[in-house]
Amino acid sequence: MGSQGGFYQSKEFLDLVKSIGEARSKAEEDRIVLSEIETLKRRISEPDIPKRKMKEYIIRLVYVEMLGHDASFGYIHAVKMTHDDSLLVKRTGYLAVTLFLNEDHDLIILIVNTIQKDLKSDNYLVVCAALNAVCKLINEETIPAVLPQIVELLAHPKEAVRKKAIVALHRFYQKSPSSVSHLVSNFRKRLCDNDPGVMGATLCPLFDLITNDVNSYKDLVISFVSILKQVAERRLPKAYDYHQMPAPFIQIKLLKILALLGSGDKQASENMYTVVGDIFRKCDSSSNIGNAVLYECICCVSSIYPNPKLLESAADAISRFLKSDSHNLKYMGIDALGRLIKISPEIAEQHQLAVIDCLEDPDDTLKRKTFELLYKMTKSTNVEVIVDRMIDYMISINDNHYKTEIASRCVELAEQFAPSNQWFIQTMNKVFEHAGDLVNIKVAHNLMRLIAEGFGEDDNTADSQLRSSAVESYLHILGEPKLPSVFLQVICWVLGEYGTADGKYSASYITGKLCDVAEAYSNDETVKAYAVTALMKIYAFEIAAGRKVDMLPEVGFQALDYKFILCKCILIAVFDVVDYLHLLQRAYELQAVIGLDAHAVESIMPADASCEDIEVDKALSFLNGYIQESIEKGAQPYIPESERSGMLNISNFRNQDHHEASSHGLRFEAYELPKQTVQARIPPASLASTELVPVPEPMYPRESYQTTTVPSVSSDAASTELKLRLDGVQKKWGRQTHFPSTSTSNSTSQKTVNGITQVDGSNTANSRTRETYDSRKQVEISPEKQKLAASLFGGPSKTEKKSATGHKSSKPSSHMVKSHAPKSSMEVASEKTSPVQQPPDLLDFGEPTVKTTAPSLDPFKHLEGLLEPTTQVSSAVNHSSTAAVTKSPDIMGLYTETPAGAHHKDNDILSGLSNPPMTNMVGGTTAMQVAQSSKGPNLKDSLEKDALVRQMGVTPSSQNPNLFKDLLG
Amino acid sequence: MSLFVLQIHFVLLISRQGKVRLTKWYSPYSQKERTKVIRELSGLILTRGPKLCNFVEWRGLRVVYKRYASLYFCMCIDEDDNELEILEIIHHYVEVLDRYFGSVCELDLIYNFHKAYFILDELLIAGELQEPSKRTVARLVAAQDSLVETAKEQTSSITNIIAQAANFTIKMLHKGYGPWGSNALHLESLLLVDVCTR
Questions:
Q1: Min CA distance, B177 vs chain A (Å)?
Q2: pLDDT tens for residues A880-910?
Q3: How far is CA A514 from the centre of its chain?
């Protein structure tokens, strides 16, 4: 076509381009551009430049700016150029201003007038040029100036103009919805435009509108479906075909819209099934664009109300993607898999080896996408494998942005699914060690809070064991040479609060360690401050306990260090004083505390009180007597702030003083949690996770089997073994399945044709899929991969539930919190542990049990409520409602005798048993106790235990003695 | 309004040597940020091997790129968008360029970057694909060009014609028809769209 017509630039310009093209280095290029800028500056302000010349200067300005240099000196000339009468010149002017200016630039006001004039032009090309500029430049203030004309242009005879007018109106809607809210009906109208290009352009604004308000557009479902049908049936002009696909870009946009409209709407979705199915069939999966449409179909299917047939087609398409050699398709396959597992979790298992291949692929993009998928399919059975992999990857990369993201994901998963305390603490340690300075400070605060508050059980032993294991691992880690500041803060805080709590370590040992920290990281004032406060706590606890404080010489030095700090403060008076003042005050406080007697110290620094609320008497009522006295002595009465404006400062000062007094003078809590800095920050990962998390609700009905059995194990374990979030989660480690089941499944696959042999009740689904995969592939798969696959995809998906017991309700609630992105995991943690959550927990729990084993179960609960009215009040209250409905008095009577004696003895066990699903007969419970106490390396024992627990619905195995030990103690 | 997300945040054309051939920013970026973005992305993309994905993750966004001869076309999108579609939009653009310039090569874009901009403006507005029909785009651009041509004829002079002739020669030479063409120029004169894929 007319390409050669473009070569009308001057020799000078061509030389410029050529010399830049030949520049050997960036520096050389910069030099050339800078000299060009000088030339242009000089030339462009000369008087009477011919238009053609000026146009070239402007293009050269664009060139200079494109290469990253500042051409703002010439902006005004570009603006002037838009005023020109000739389209030739005007078009260049518009191009330049759209490239140069952002919508908030001052010069825009100078263009608005020209745009207004051009929009009225009878040459449609002029109008088009102006509309291009409108889309880029018109801002909120200038919308009204052009809006009437844009609306007029929606009915322009030329389709190119109508199309651009639509886009312009869409931009206005994006910038200021209120300014065009009365015009949105135009988009609907234009949907029926004769020109497919205009119709296609209308889909973009409609997509936005529907995203914001689905319900007002439900009536369009039929129209969209019929348009899509026509497009798919090639009713559009041939010109819209792209690589033999009929208007694929329009199809994709329509599928996106349908996905929105059909989400959670069965009726609307039903209208779409046929057309989406048709597209699945018609798509040419050999071309890239065909796959793009297929991918969009999968997205649509996973969003609308599920339809088994479509899900099947989607799964087929995904397996084609994953099996492809193209990395792009594998990537799309992984992404699509992530979308589909929300609806049908079992689909992941078919592709486990493909997923693992992607995970081990050298391509970082693919790897990261796979991590995203793993993140979405993490459950308690595979959390260890996944998080370990994530951490390994995290350590291996340098990209800070992604490192931060993956670190926060690790933390999130660890908090949600941690199988044991040790593992949790170790995982957090690893994350902090390697990405400590990248993770949100909030994560550190969250960890401290978690350690302080425990994990929500009423069981204090578990919490205190968590703390002592944290203390132990921190003392160990302190030996490492260089630790991130945030991590050190956590360590200091935990050591201060709980270092001496279990009596394992002496105060002097802990203080010695803390002093080492303060010394080793002497230039980090925050860490030092944490260390000093921790020291103060340790001493306070010691004094309160009536023990003699043996001050290490270094500690004495630490405490008296404040003089040194004071000097520093004075020296650096202008600079960073705040930090030093904090430190100084802490040092003073420490010294003051050490001088006090035990009683006073205890009230200042109660042990393990970090979670208690500090009550602040805002009215300062305790000072009333003092004030009365002073007034009687003739002092001035207090005048409220509103009544005197000039004395603001003084009053503030006084207020603060009182405040201080009211909170015992030492506000140790406030230092630890600088909340104000935290609130503004939102972990990026939580945003991304909004729709990734599998929604637990639909699972509930199928859960009854589990709920009745599982928690019995964990609740049992609770009495002896500390734990994190074990209860309510099937104790079925991924690893255990792969040793035996891979072998069995292999052997069975030889025997049976389809491999549908039942290997093990709970393993069937898993092994079957693996067999089919094996037989299909006929390729040797390395044992490591199989192992990994087994641990990732481990338990059959049926056993994995968002459990409904114990923490069950807290899990869904945390999902809910996550879906409101800005809320933090901090809040999640607090929700987990807050007592308010408990009643729904238990009720939740009660529901499925009612369905299944209610009669044998409820009386037991009820019984406990009767037996231990003091400890069990809350649970008794909760259960009595369900019990009242279902229990039969006979059975209850039966139970009142025997277990009463058995359990009354031991409060701990009883509280452990208070979890309702302790369904088994008394014999069961005693057996459990025996099992517990005799748990050891003995294989026979553990096999017996296996059998027992299996009988209770959990299927752990002896292949996994360590994990199992965790679980049973 | 953060509620609305552009489909495409920016378009970049970078040569294999890391030289910028075209930039179009649909989301606001300051000049400083732009330089940084280009530097980061060329470091990220130019080093990737041939068989890897055409997508890279970058600052929580996705950059879809495709290499044509010695030129990389990159578009930046949100992470949950359809990457394959963007890949095809890139290809669509290249096909339109190819049709317009007639066997487009990097040199055409180097010397006529403003034309590449005009064509891009007909294809994408405000970060959304606005015209899926190649024919329509070609027709619109041709209509504008014909105006330009007529305008030029009115002001045409001998010098102009001579300049054109000279430039044409230069292009021909660069395209490999002449004796002098450095390695860099040789790269630039490779056809973007291979004859066999046409």
A1: 16
A2: 444 444 444 444 444 444 444 444 444 444 4
A3: 34
